[in-house]
Amino acid sequence: MNFKNSSSNQTEHHPTQSFNLVLHRILFSIGILVSVPSLITNIFILIRLHSNSKLSIYVFRCILHVSLFMTLTCVPIFLTELYLEYFPFAIIFCQLWLIVDYSSIVCLGLLVCWASIQRHVLIFGPLNLRKSQKRLRFKIIPLLFSIAIPLTWYTILILGVTCFQEVKNKNTVNDSKRVCKPCFEENIFLFLIDTIFSLVVPLLITFIATFLLLIRIFVKRHRLSLSLTEQF
Length: 232
Known about the structure:
By secondary structure, this protein is mainly alpha-helical. The chain has helices spanning 2-49, 55-84, 91-124, 127-132, 136-161, 188-231, and strands spanning 162-168, 176-182.
């Protein structure tokens, strides 16, 4: 009787497992199709911009380097876990992967935020301030800030509360396999703090800076058109 019940339970779960397997394979294929062209495009643009020393291109090159680093390090591990449906490496690799992955994403957001603010200086700033932006420290300090802040934050956060989630293996009853995940997201307070300072604040600053830049450009253009009209 128990044998029949266990057999029926396995039969009931089989369609769900098959659906999850197909879904993971589809997502894996999409990840490959997106990652490979992205990698090629990223490398091609970096090669083209390698000899460009303009200050306006510097931040863009930094963004491309971080994006390339993510594609070469984080994406393959994600695709491996997606294909196998479990994390095949030790917990230390799980922690390192999560730290690099989360830090890189936030670093990209901070670099975009920095670029949106820097455009005001490069377009409307005084000449001496624009010249000072070409100095090495004005290039390195924002870049180090964008890397060090998220790296320190997620190192403390992930090393403290990272865990493996045990999931049952679909092939055997007693065996279980692990999924790498950051457990701090289950803490509402930590999750809100992380979301606000790593996502909401950079996006809000970027939006406000870009919006104000468009307004300043529109006002400047309007004044120039008025001055030209008065001259003629």
